[in-house]
Design a protein that fits this description.
The complex is a heterodimer. Chain A is α+β, with helices and mostly antiparallel strands. Helix content of chain A is 39%, strand content 22%. Chain A has helices at residues 23-33, 85-103, 110-127, 153-167, 176-183, 186-192, and strands spanning 8-16, 46-51, 67-68, 71-80, 131-140, 145-148, 170-173. Chain B is built from 5 helices and 6 strands. In chain B, strands 1, 2, 3, 4, 5 and 6 form a 6-stranded antiparallel β-sheet that branches. In chain B, helix 2 (11-27) crosses helix 4 and helix 3 packs across helix 5. The chains are: A alpha+beta, B alpha+beta.
Amino acid sequence: MGLLTNSASFVRYSVEGEVPPDFWNFAAERIRANAFRDIDDNFDERSVGWVSPLNMFDSEFTYASYTVGDYLVISLRIDERKVASAALKKLTMKEEERIKRERQIPKLSRDHRVEIKENMRLMLLKRAVPIPAVYDLVWSLADNTVLFFATSQKAQAELEDFFKTTFDLYLQQQIPYLVGGRLLPAEAADRLADLKPAILI
Amino acid sequence: MDLVDLMTEKAFLGQEFLTWLWFKSAERGGAVRLENTGSDVEVVFEKHILLESGEGDSYEKIICQGLQAELREARTGLAMGKKIEQARIMLVLDQYEFRLTLKGSLFEFRSVRLPKTMDGSEESDDAGAVEAKLLDRIGLYEMLLRTTDELFRMFLSLRVGSDWPRELARLTAWIREAG
């Protein structure tokens, strides 16, 4: 559902804040510092970073640049290890039973059970294969807007945070009211603020 | 007012826009004149309209799916005071055919299908061809957004202007025809 797929979903943002005059050098440095780092070979729970929209394994932009004319075209990749709650519950109960039998005690303390659960969670996390999600982004430098190819609120919140971390610039989602303020002359835009819903029946 | 409050308080703007756009497209057999270019865009509401009413416990939604003729149920929903929250729309501009589902309250563009401009033989993996393909698609997305922006600007100019009561009377008469 991205920039290059047959069917795509997206929202529009405006970029708020001062974009540095030597933008492409600034962007190159920030993207390099926040490029995606693989967690397949370690036990990190999650990793967030930038990759090429043409290849989610290319975080050095070896095969394609993110510069496309007057646009920055890049993808946000989020890899996350997830633990199924049913599996966690099963293994926690199994371990509790094992310890109770071994020590011949009827009950475990609450603290001990919390500790067992956390140990089981870490063990399952280490075994879990990170699940990737990739979302494309097009930043138009001419009008300082971003098209983000995801409509899930979780993905949008991730982008807003990570864009701020990377570029020190804020994204503001272009909901109808804000689009209207931009499209109308100032005097008409002021009247938007006072509008109430119309009765259409 | 922060963004979250604005999203809720002003959600009606996008919903009213979708209702107005449907009415506008019905007025001239699908053609809507764009004021900025003077050219017509064909606007067709098709297959899918989602209407909502109420909030919290009294929230209701109905989904009308089917061919154009069957969207009469959606018109009846409007006559009962429901608002269009989401609609599947085809826009034809200079022979470029776009299909999209527009979520009115947030202006989310969903399941967008762009017109085909390149055939398979032109596709290649070399850097120049990839950049051309990306620019082609970005150009089409911008064409779509310029068109929806202009339609929305036309609606808002009317909505905050002195002609709104007359437009509203025409719009409500059209809704009542189906009720």
